[in-house]
Amino acid sequence: MKNSMKVAKWEIKRNLRNKSFIISILSTPLLFILFFSIPMLFNSGGETDQNSLTLYVEDPLEVWSTIDSTGLADSLDWDVELTTETPSAAFLDDKENSVMVSFQEEHIRSGQIPTYLSEDLSETDLHQLQAIQPFVKQAQLELFGFENDEIEIASMPVSFIAQAESETDQAEEAGGAFSFLERLVPGIFAGVILFSVVITGMMIFTSASQEKKEKVSEMILSSITPHELMQGKIIGYFVLGVIQVASWIAIILPFLTWYVDFPLLSYLFVPELLVLVLIAVAGYLLFAAIFVGIGATVDEVSSTSNFQGIIFMIPWLPFILLGPILSDPEGLIAQIGSYFPLTAPGVLIIRLSMLEEWPWIEVIISMLILFVTIWLFIKLAGKVFKTGILMYGKNATPKEILKWMRES
Fold first, then answer.
1. Which helix (H) or strand (E) holds 126?
2. CA–CA distance, 361 with 126 (Å, rounded to integer)
């Protein structure tokens, strides 16, 4: 174990001195914050100051005075100027963001109000005038001799009103939303840990192959056993994954705490988080054993065969089952995915993030299967690593790898 820790320390120091690794640690959360903030920028961009609309009104019937008395004009932020000029396009020749309307009696009666726009506006900008349409309609009804109560009814739009929920229903709905967040936040956190340590676990594949190519492994194995070398790599890259996650959390968590409108930290630090993190760590150990064993069989990363390339796809198998799991987290497919070791880490995290009550029997059985599989894979990976790390000149075939696994 002492030699394994030396290998782990060497891997940690070597990668922490690598500029690309440091840049990847910092760039990932910064890109997350950037893309998370882009919608905020667009939303605020939609509120940028624009020149307020200038409305010139020919108003012999004093329609605008009625509108003005309601305070609607102030809320619309229009600059309104009453004029006795005859409405025409020529009147707006030297003006911008301006509209001219005429409230003559014949126009009100016909319901067709002549409107002129400055050259920088188009007919699509006429939608702004819809805000005063009810008042023009009221003036029209008055001209036709309608009484006030009739005008009020005629001007009132018909609305379809949803039945209000009781306070109890609203409280239950709000409680359900917060309950879902309480389940989802720890799951997302565990998913980030799994994603991060799996990514660093993939680096074991490259590391083992690179050392094999440069024949560094020969010198290392002169003083330690292949099992100690493999074990040290797994421990070292696990620590690198933890460092990566800690760095992401240190950068992203303050931003999310400021941005979201619910108690993120109280949702995050719950007892269930320990179980989810344990699942994520188990997932790393499983995939790291696969990566380090197969990495030792590759002589040149650039010439990786289809077989070795497929290995990189294994951690993403749960995404194939994502649809059925989301639609029915307690269904047969979700249960099978929980028991199958290669999909269990991802499927369990997704399922437990959605379920109100955890199926503890299924979780315990799944974890037992997962840990037995980890022990078996580490043992098999050790056999593959022992032989493969010293084989040069070609990539190992699946037949050769199976042969090494059967050797005692």
1. none
2. 64
Q: Which of 275, 287, 273, 208 is nearest to 241 (CA)?
A: 287
Are 211 and 236 in contact by the 8 Å Cβ rule? The answer is: no
Decide: 240 and 14 in contact? Cβ < 8 Å.
no
Q: Are 176 and 354 in contact (CB under 8 A)?
A: no
pLDDT > 70 in the chain, percent: 74
Using CB atoms within 10 A of its CB, is residue 50 exposed (0-12), middle (13-18) or buried (19+)? exposed
**Please, is 67 exposed, middle or buried when counting C-beta atoms within 10 Å of its C-beta (0-12, 13-18, 19+)?**
buried
The 10s digit of each residue's pLDDT in 45-60 is: 444 444 577 888 888 8
Write down the pTM of the prediction. 0.59
Please name the residues in contact with 105: beta carbons below 8 A apart, sequence gap of 6 or more: 60, 61, 143
Contact partners, residue 69, CB within 8 Å, separation at least 6: none
Q: Quick one: which of 363, 361, 382 has its CA closest to 371?
A: 363
Interacting residues of 286 by C-beta distance below 8 A, sequence separation 6+: 341, 342, 345, 370, 373, 374, 377
Burial state string for 300-319 with b = 16 or more CB within 10 A and e = fewer than 16? ebeebeeebeebbeebeebe
Contact yes or no for 132/72 (Cβ under 8 A): yes
Q: What is the pLDDT of residues 249-278, one digit of tens each?
A: 788 777 777 766 666 677 777 788 888 889
